[in-house]
Specification:
Elements: H1 3-15, H2 20-27, H3 33-39, H4 49-87, H5 97-111, E1 121-125, H6 128-142, E2 150-154, H7 161-172, E3 201-207, H8 209-225
Antiparallel strand pairs: 1-3, 2-3
Helix pairs in contact: 5-6, 5-8
Amino acid sequence: MNRVEIKQQVIKLRAKGKTYSEIEQALKLSLPKATLSGWCKDVVLPKWYRQKIYKLNQENYKKARELAWAANKIKRERFIQELLNNIKPLQQKTKDLDVLKMILATLYLGEGTKWKGHSGMVLGSSDPNIILLYIKLLELCYGVDHRNLKCRVSYRADQNIKSLEKYWSVLTGIPLRNFYKTKFDPRTIGKPTKNKEYKGVCVIMGVGSHIQLELEAIPKLILAGL
């Protein structure tokens, strides 16, 4: 086709509601957008064209968002891997009993009970990793057998306590017979649990107060030495 014929085809397709990209694809040509716009400046577009462009923009926005999410995920995974590589030497420090006690003391300082008068240590968290770390550190630092620990689960009104106890028992290795009976939080009645992964708060008990006293003293000694 010569230039005149190409122009006529462009105008015809534009009048049918084709975008400039669709016109180029249909004619198997690559033309400057300024040229296409100049040729089609007097073309009357179909009434539905604006809705078509809106839909295309929404689809393109969705694709762009998905691509951005995928790119950010890759960047995050690379960052985490680099971070793990940088801190890997710290793993050797976990063979030092004094270091483990400091970690346990810090963990208890953040997550454990602070009040006096109760019998022994109490630590609760909804994070499985915190619970597992706590139990493992008790074993390594003080020889505490997880099978002798006591446990209770704080939960919401719409959750099944039997299912939650089974979950925490399997995770921690604490026998179900060591779980105390509990009641749901009355403040949650009529408020559905939005996070389906939420398994309540696992509260670990059954550790002597002498260990608690030692752990509470460690942060004070660290602070005094800084």
